Amino acid sequence: MIRNYGQPPTLEFMIFSMSTYSWRKIDVEPPIGFSLIIRRSVCVNSVIHMMPFRSVDILGFDLRTEKFTIINTPQGVVPHKSSS
């Protein structure tokens, strides 16, 4: 294991292609301020919608454009407490 003391951690994002049955690295940066610890996620119309930990906003990742988007929830929304 290599440790980079004093340097920020790096992330690599990989997508699995069902057409080629292979992984490929993509060059993207998640939006600033979003945790990549995800509580729940669902894929609809080629967009993965994620509920990051400690956020009520939704983080979307479009598999076609390979870009992140932020879906702001209305002010005052309270996070749902799951029983699982």
Main sheet specs: 4 strands, antiparallel
In order across it, which strands form the biggest sheet? Answer: 3-4-5-6
- Could you name the ranges where pLDDT drops below 50 across 5 or more consecutive residues? none
Average pLDDT reading: 80
Distance between the termini: 33 Å
Radius of gyration: 15 Å
- Tally of distinct domains: 1
- The outline comes out as globular
Helix content: under 10%
* SS class: mainly beta
Provide a count of the helices: 0
Listing every helix as H and every strand as E from the N terminus to the C terminus, the arrangement reads EEEEEE
Proportion of residues in extended strands: 35-45%
How many individual β-strands? 6
Written account of the structure:
The chain is an all-beta fold. It is built from no helices and six strands. The chain has strands at 13-17, 22-26, 38-44, 47-52, 58-62, 67-71. The strands form two sheets. A four-stranded antiparallel sheet has the order 3-4-5-6, with no helix packed on it. It has a two-stranded antiparallel sheet with strand order 1-2. Strand 5 (58-62) and strand 6 form a beta hairpin.
Question: Could you list some keywords that capture this structure?
Answer:
single chain; 84 residues; mainly beta; two-stranded antiparallel ribbon; 0% helix
Short description:
This protein has 84 residues and is mostly beta strands.
Draw up the topology in text.
Blueprint (H helix, E strand, L loop, with lengths): L12 E5 L4 E5 L11 E7 L2 E6 L5 E5 L4 E5 L13
Antiparallel strand pairs: 1-2, 3-4, 4-5, 5-6
